[in-house]
Amino acid sequence: MTNTKAKIGIVGLGLIGGSIEKCLTNTCKYEILTVSASQGRQHKLEDLKDCDLVFLCGPQGVIYKQLEEIASLQAQPESEFFQNTIITDVGSTKQKICERAEELGLKNFVGGHPMAGTEEQGYDASFPELFGGCTWVLTEQSARTRLLEELIIIDLGAGNIEIIDPVTHDKAVAAISHVPLVLSIGLGNLLSEVPQAKKFIGPGFKGMARLAKGNQTLGKEIITANRGNIKEVWKIYRNYVDSFLDIAGDNLIEEIEEVKTVLQ
Ligand code: NAP
Questions:
Q1: Separation between Cα atoms, residue 144 and residue 152, nearest integer Å
Q2: Structural domains in the chain?
C-alpha cells in the first residue's frame, strides 16, 4: 500500500504563512515546500508545480503577480505546471484577487481569508496556534476544496469555514475589520491633536488604538483595495454617532442597552 503524503506549498513566510507552516510541520502529515526570501528557502514558485495545494501568503500586490506567474506557467503548451493544484490565498480582501484570477483564466483558484492575526509581522512573530478557533473564509465550496477544508479545520484548528462571495466578503470586512482599523488610526492621531491626553492613557484607549500599531504595508493595501466599501460603512457609522450624541436622558441608557444586545 502506498502512503503518499499530500504536497503543500506555502509562498511567503510572514505572520500568516509562517503560522501555517509551523502548524502543518507539527502534524507530520504533509510534504511541505516553502518559498521564502527572508528565510532563505531554496524553492521557487515554479518548484511547487505538482503540489496538491498552494497557499499564497504575501501582501496582496504580491499575490496578484504570483497569480499571473502561475497562470502563465499553467497555460504553456502541454504544461505540467499546477495542472491539478488547488491555489488559494490569504489576502484580507477578496474581490480584486478573485477577479484577477478569473481574468487570467487560472485553473483551480479558491479565494481564502483566515480571520486571525496579531499586530506583529514576519516569521518570528508567527506561531502554530494562530488559527485556533478562527473563522476561515473561502469563496467556494466544492469537491475540489475538500483537502483545503480538512486541512483548515483538522490541522490548522480553525473553528469554522464560511463560504461567501468576494463582493459580500469585502463589504462585511469593511465593517468588522477595516473601519475599526481606520478608527484606531484616527484615535492615534488624536494624541497629536490633544497631546496633554497622552499621560492619562489607560487600557481602554490602548485596546481601542491597538490596530493602528499593526503592519503599515498591509494597512495601505487594505485601504487601497477596499476604500469604496470602507467609505460607505464609515458614512453609516458617522451618521449613527452624530445621532447618538443627540440622544438625551434615559433614552441614552436604552440605546446603549440595545447596542449591547446586538453585540451578544
Ligand atoms: P507579513 O508578516 O508582513 O508577511 C508577508 C510575507 O510576504 C513576508 O514575510 C514575505 O515573505 C512576503 N513578502 C513581502 N513582501 C514581498 C515581496 N515584495 N515579494 C515577495 N514576497 C514578499 O504579513 P502577514 O500578516 O503574514 O500577511 C500576509 C497576507 O495575509 C496579506 O495578504 C494580508 O492581507 C493577509 N492577512 C493578514 C492578517 C493579519 O492580521 N496580519 C490576517 C488575515 C490575512 P518571505 O520573506 O518569506 O518571502
A1: 14
A2: 6-164 (3.40.50.720), 168-263 (1.10.3660.10)
pLDDT in tens, 174-187: 999 999 999 999 99
- Which residues fall within 8 angstroms of residue 73, CB to CB, at 6 or more apart? 46, 49, 79, 81, 82
| Ligand 1 atom with least separation from CA of 122 | 2
Say what the pTM is.
0.96
C-alpha of residue 101 to centroid of ligand 1, in Å = 19
CA quadruple 27, 30, 33, 35: dihedral positive or negative?
A: negative
Report how far ligand 1's centroid is from the alpha carbon of 78 (Å). Answer: 32
* Cα 57 to averaged position of ligand 1 atoms, centre (Å): 6
For β-strands 160-163 and 135-138, DSSP reports them as parallel
